[in-house]
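Aim 2, interim progress. The first record below pairs a target sequence with its structure tokens.
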Amino acid sequence: MRLFIRIFNKLNRIFLNLYYSTIFKKLGKNSYIQNPIKLQGTERISIGSNVNIGWGAWLAAFPHTGFFKECELVIEDGVSIGNFAHIYATKKICIKKNVLIADKVYISDNLHGYEDINTPIIKQPIIQKREVEIGEGCWIGEGVCIIGAKIGKNVIIGANAVITKDVPDYCVAVGLPARIIKRYNLEKQIWENEKNVKNNQRNLNKEGGVFYKTKNMVLTKQTFF
């Protein structure tokens, strides 16, 4: 019985991948989508190799806001997405390589309009926000909501956080709205609490130094003599 189930599951996966390869813009090798709840605009969705997308996903790339040529959803190689993910692009969402996404995550580059208080929100136009990009090697916790923001490389987003502003490389962000609580110091090669980083900045300013922020958010100091 177990052997029969294994054979059935393997054949089912093969046939599904053959079908998906005909409807998606791109579907890489060894990628699998487990029983999605809804797929919209698949001709605008590109999925790389070795991607796994869990049960009940809703993937969409639909140009509600008029970006017919630009609209796309890109999921690069090695991405793992948990169950019941909802990812909806009206212009562009890009998930870079080797990103780990937990269950029940919502990612969008748009919002429902609500400006007219005399019109039900469901009848108001979709508002285009900024393009979304999630950098390589990130870990996105369960229940996270990302709307119109760019997340840097190797960032950790804590469970149930709401991200509406950019998060730089090598940070830990948590909360609603999200705030950075840790940064990685590339010079010392350690994670530092955000409070300690700010305290060090104040102390150096008192000593007559000036801070320079590098591209990777490492703080350096030049002292005037």
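The second target in this work package is listed in the same format:
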Amino acid sequence: MKKYILCGAIASLLLTTSCSDFLDVRAVGSVNQEDLLNQDGLDKVLTGMYSTLHNTAYFDCTLSNWAYGDVLGGSANKGSTYTDQAAFTSLETYSITTDNSFFIQKWASVYNGVFRANVVLDMADQIKDDLSAIKGESKDYYTETIAQARFMRALWHFEGIKLFGGAIPYVGSEAYSSSVNPMVSNVDESGNYIYIWDKVVDDFRFAYENLPEVWTIDKGRANKWAAAGFLAKTLVYWSSAYNGKNGNENHWEEAKTLLAEIIAQGKDNNGTKYKLADSYEDLYVAGISDWTGESVFDIPMAISGTQTNTNAINGPFTTAMVGSLGSGGWGFFQPSYELANSFIVDKNGLPYLDNSYQSMPTLTTMAETVPKTNLEVYTDPRLDVTIGRFNVPYWDYSIPTILDGWVRDVTNGGLYMNKKDIPKKADKGGLSLPTETASTAKNFHMIRFADILLWYAEALIETGQYKEAGKYINQVRSRAANHYVKAANPETMEESTSSYVLEDLVHGKVSANAAANYRIGLYPDAQFNSKENAIQALRFERKLELALEGHRWYDLARWGIAGNEIKNYINYEKQYLVKYARSYYEPHWVTLPIPNSQILTMEGVLVQNENWK
């Protein structure tokens, strides 16, 4: 076993993923077991474990999950050109196969993360007596180290479950080896699938019960409440529709109790009690977005010196503007036409829950070669924080009026730009590099407090408390009234006058000089008289509030409505983008296939999931 520990520790420190027996022989300048089996060495390996959150992949396995949650889920188009990234194009157009390279990379990313966590667990157990005598934040160092490692092990297994289903190999301490790909089966001796939900829940629960409430030494570490958030999320997913045994057990009461505790007592690593950020925009501006009280679990980002390889969660240049607005980028991750129109509201400032917004003209159209946005129609003010559109100020860069420097290929990606992932030109505190539009020091919010409130509302609905759920859905909507994009002088980008307004029906006031007409209101009590109506509001609110944050497809899949919703999306989007003309989404694709290459590598130990047999 010693050679395994040595191997794993070096892998973690050097950010590698494999090793072999030759490491029994110590190379000149290498790190040996004795160097690492102490608190200082374990701290370094812990850092290696957390570093898996910072995957530099552009598309396939970043934890923002924009390729799956947003592009597969219909919130965004891949962007760039049709032929760029063929595996991504296949995913986007629902030409899904078992050998798609995106799935291979995601699978590898998941089990590399699991491996790193198991390395920490194994090393800590070897020096348990020494570590147990060291005081931690709230318990002893050993217990807190184990809790962090089990949190990360659960996080990565859950990441695999969300994509590939609940019957994937669970690699725990008993199965740990020097390989990131141990021969662990996902079926029992009778060929029945082994679903791992309970093991993931056990890991998260241990972390919840043993992590400190606040880390004073490192705000990027998972605390008790982050673990509670992931535990609740797992219970919510486990209780949702999916199909078969993949996720249909009822844990709503447990989830509800836990979420209520998070709402009442949870706090971030600054010691700030969880709350919604004061404004929706605050969540996406470097310097103020990270510790607003809304961060339940963040992936921390940093920019230092003249660094040009950015820490942006989606990789350098992936989402950056392609030309004159910034330094140049690759032009990926463009919001869909369907998503943009979803923000249109009725006279009461409410979304069209019956999808009638799809029969309305798209907000931005092409008049010959000149894009034009209808600024008269009333929209939810979150629209222009989420999506960049023509004739509306794009952060502090400019007001786009021509295609040059905007999108790479209108015919493939459409007319809208991602806005949440792009830092302002002059971020607060100089936290982005002026020459790198995708470069940002703002954290990526894996779970934020709005998530917690909406999951709690969902749990209340599922346990028959419809009217109570409405309070939390409306709480999220109410925050949307606190900010709107102002009109700007196109030359200076300073605030300017306009005839457009924000009609804030939440607080009963009208605010002037808006960049477009905005309107926001709260759902009436009548919306929550039945489960059907309540769940309709909940689902639409998640679509708007969490747009382009990597959640949409996962939500549709777990709710069991992906087939109909994505079919509807394809029919809408193909009016504007011909690439969808022959697309078809199979309802059983609520889980994606385990990569065929992994099944072959595992020599029959690993079996394809139930939807792809």
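The longest helix spans residues 101-126. This observation will shape the mutagenesis plan for the next reporting period.
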